[in-house]
Amino acid sequence: MxxxxxxxxxxxxxxxxISNMKAILSEERAGMKMAKYRMVRTEFWKNPIVxxxxxxxxxxxxxxxxxxxxxxxxxIYRITKxxxxxxxxxxxxxxxxxxGRFEEHHQLIRYNPETRELAIKNxxxxxxxxxxxxxxxxxxxxxxxxxxxxxxxxxxxxxxxxEIRSLYEAFYQQKEMLIETGDDERDFCEEFDxxxxxxxxxxxxxEKEKQKEKQKQQxxxxxxxxxxxxxxxxxxxxxxVKEIIEFxxxxxxxxxxxxxxxxxxxxxxxxxxxxxxxxxxxxMKIACANNKRKLNYIIGILKNWExxxxxxxxxxxxxxxxxxxxxxxxxxxxxxxxxxxxxxxDLSAGEDG
Length: 353
Description:
By secondary structure, the chain is mainly α. It has a domain at 223-325. It is built from 17 helices and 5 strands. A 3-stranded antiparallel sheet has the order 3-5-4. Helix 1 links the parallel strand 1 (2-4) and strand 2. Helix 4 crosses helix 5 and helix 8 runs antiparallel to helix 9. The radius of gyration is 36 Å and the shape is elongated. The termini are far apart. Residues 246-319 form the DnaB/C C-terminal domain.
């Protein structure tokens, strides 16, 4: 189990490294290929409690609680004092004394001696900053293993991320109801899995949902007038609609942007153009030539043509030709410094004698 530690200011880094190497060897013996790690932020050393109240031994013990091989994703794990003593090289009495200090004086942990479960108060604040399906799955799986439900509530109070805190609270509340009603815990676990929010779906499921949505949109992109009268006016030519959409899709304007396509198609019916389809396609070609593949750019071109009363492609072409003729030629300036006209170059200057 790898631990990320601040290199400077940690007199016990080598001891913790040795402790974690024991875990690595034990994992290798068990055939485990996936290594775990725990992060200790550099702000750890700036914490007022760590700076002002903890002894060097306290700091060492706290780092051990945060990074030892039994830690979990949820900040609640099962560990015995005998295991702590073995890992740290302490006596049972020393570990018992340290546990008392951290529970009563520093108030950073809770320990249930009956279930041998330890909960770290600020675990969620430091380690549960990101959600996502893998994290949520791991949290749910580990919460099911907790016997002392009050520890779940204890850790949840200091989790800043809303969706993760809600998951802890939901789990704790449902387990409390389970105790009151006397229902089977296995039934509870199945019901809890079924009631997880939809935002925790797997990546694979999300990909499938996106694929289905894309397929649905693809059907909408090539509408027939009979089957999709809500998208286009039935008085319009189905061929015109299809030609515009095909040009849009094949030229990188945004395959899935159905809303933009509907806005563009509205120009077939709502504009004053005599050749609306040809004008729209020409505007899209200009957008491609200028590398401006956006709906607003196309609509801007169409509005300019309407303002200039250019209603056909021929009128647009004629207008552009006239603009080129009336456009003043750009004046070119010679490179370098200008030489006065009256200046005469004397190549024999300075060669007297």
